[in-house]
Amino acid sequence: MALQENLTLLTDLYQLTMAHAYFRERRMGTASFSLFIRSYPPNRGYFVSAGLKDLLDYLQALSFDTEALDYLASQKLFSEDFLHYLGDLKFTGDVWAIPEGRIFFTDEPIVEISAPIIEAQIIETFVINQIHLQSLIATKAARCVHAAAGRPLVDFALRRTHGADAGMKVARASYLAGFAGTSNVRAGQHYGIPLVGTMAHSFIMSFEHEIDAFRAYVSSFPNNSILLIDTYDTLTGAKNAAQVAKEMAGRGQKLIGVRIDSGDLPEQARAVRMILDAAHLREVKIIGSSGLDEFDLAEFSAANVPFDSYGVGTKMGMSADAPWTDMSYKLVEYHDRPVLKRSAGKVSWPGRKQVFRVRDNDGNFSRDVIGQRDESLAGEALLNEYMHAGKIRGYYPSLLESRKVLAADFAALSPDVKAIRDPARYAVEFSPNLQTLREEVEQRVASDR
After folding, report:
1. Residue 2 has what pLDDT?
2. Nearest CA to 105 among 342, 435, 382?
3. Which end of the chain is more exposed for a tag (fewer CB within 10 A), N or C?
4. How far apart are CA 103 and CA 410, in angstroms?
């Protein structure tokens, strides 16, 4: 996966066929599209915004190179003058968005893009692809962090994510959400995320005796070894690890921890803790892994299972219990004319918008109000302008800064809304002006039919 490759053709064919039809009809007016999620997946009460940085980088680099144009010409769908038009195309529009790391809710615009309609149409697929995956994973990861109740989490998802790009974005989104690090070395290099790793069962099995594998490993890593103890028998593995830890102490070294990756994790963690404590190794930590997610972590936290941290992989990296949302990118205005969709169950809100967050006297979230872009309502305006006329505006925060933003937002969110199961619904309202606009547009659409 080349991180800098040209991604302009990463779109659905119908975006290009519509663009061709717009071009032939000379429909070049400014269009505004709004990206939002209609409903919550099961057990979700909020979402975490992520992926905006990749979107902005894509828009800045948007360009049909010779290879792309030659490929489109080979499909014999597009006229020569349209292909020439695409050859000169750059993104020249505006992008308003909720910053990465902010919490948002259903119906709220995460991103709004205003640009000549061909530009705004062609990018739809990429917009959804990037914001959907990363917000989905950041939300799942934030739930895991909450459920772990202060115990550090590490991303172990790479080997089972859906491709290399997803593996990179999962590492980034989970770190944004509060994970302590990742096992993904390339993500560590590219995003500056702390690297964490232990060992695999294959390393243990390559030695005739488990304890010899432990001794060999700590010899290579005397300052940061975590031993995997469940290859054969977890309690025997714990005793062998304790023996090696004592040998290390005699050399002035310290075993960091042991990892349990199978079986009845709570039962084994309690038994292993007893073995380590009896050996006067209370400082040796116990790390749990093996298909964990927020539901497991919440149960372990409630039961005070003596895990000190967790490796969280497959279920987080694919958001296994809720692998998709009904995220949509809908036209809300064309050529200064507000528009909406009236399909059953999929009615949209017209016009460019802003989200205003109202807090109570303690600084906690009270309610959000979705209004028109030019309204001035009480509360914090969440959408910022990140691009104007195709150029990025101002300073873009670092991943670490966005991580801190999410931590602050999460602290201000009601525990009932953060609940792992059956969360309460946060109040999202629509301003009177926006409601009036929607009624007017609906009446206009009905009369035009």
Report:
1. 45
2. 382
3. C
4. 7
Nearest one of 137, 158, 136, 138 to 311, comparing CA atoms? 158
> Looking at residues 213-217, what average pLDDT do you find?
98
Q: Is the pLDDT of residue 191 over 90?
A: yes
pLDDT of 1 reads 43
Question: Which pLDDT tens digit goes with each residue over 65-111?
Answer: 999 999 999 999 999 999 999 999 999 999 999 999 999 999 999 99
Read off the pLDDT band of 445 (50, 70, 90).
Answer: confident
Pairwise CA distance, residues 199 & 256, whole Å:
13
CA 66, CA 85: separation in Å to the nearest integer?
Answer: 13
CA 32, 36, 39, 45 dihedral sign is negative
Q: Is there a contact between 10 and 126 (Cβ–Cβ < 8 Å)?
A: yes
Query: Are the C-beta atoms of 256 and 284 separated by less than 8 Å?
Result: yes
Tell me the residue type at 328: S
Domain 25-59+91-137+331-448 shares a fold with domain 198-288: no
So what's the architecture of 198-288 in CATH?
Answer: Alpha-Beta Barrel (3.20)
SS3 string, the chain, reads: CCCCCCCCCCCCHHHHHHHHHHHHCCCCCEEEEEEEECCCCCCCCCEECCCHHHHHHHHHHCCCCHHHHHHHHHCCCCCHHHHHHHHCCCCCCEEEECCCCCEECCCCCCEEEEEEHHHHHHCHHHHHHHHHHHHHHHHHHHHHHHHHCCCCEEECCHHHCCCHHHHHHHHHHHHHCCCCEECCHHHHHHHCCCECCCCCHHHHHCCCCHHHHHHHHHHHCCCCCEEECCCCCHHHHHHHHHHHHHHHHHCCCCCCEEEECCCCHHHHHHHHHHHHHHCCCCCCEEEECCCCCHHHHHHHHHCCCCCCEEEECHHHHCCCCCCCCCEEEEEEEECCEECCCCCCCCCCCCCCEEEEEEECCCCCEEEEEEEECCCCCCCEECCEEEEECCEECCCCCCHHHHHHHHHHHHHCCCHHHHCCCCCCCCCEEECHHHHHHHHHHHHHHHHHC
Count the alpha carbons within 13 Å of 163 in the hemisphere toward its beta carbon. Answer: 6
Query: Which residues, 6+ apart, have CB-to-CB distance to 177 below 8 Å?
Result: 48, 137, 138, 139, 141, 142, 144, 145, 403, 406
Class of domain 25-59+91-137+331-448: alpha beta
pLDDT tens string 382-408: 999 999 999 999 899 999 999 999 999
Q: List the chain domain ranges.
A: 25-59+91-137+331-448, 198-288
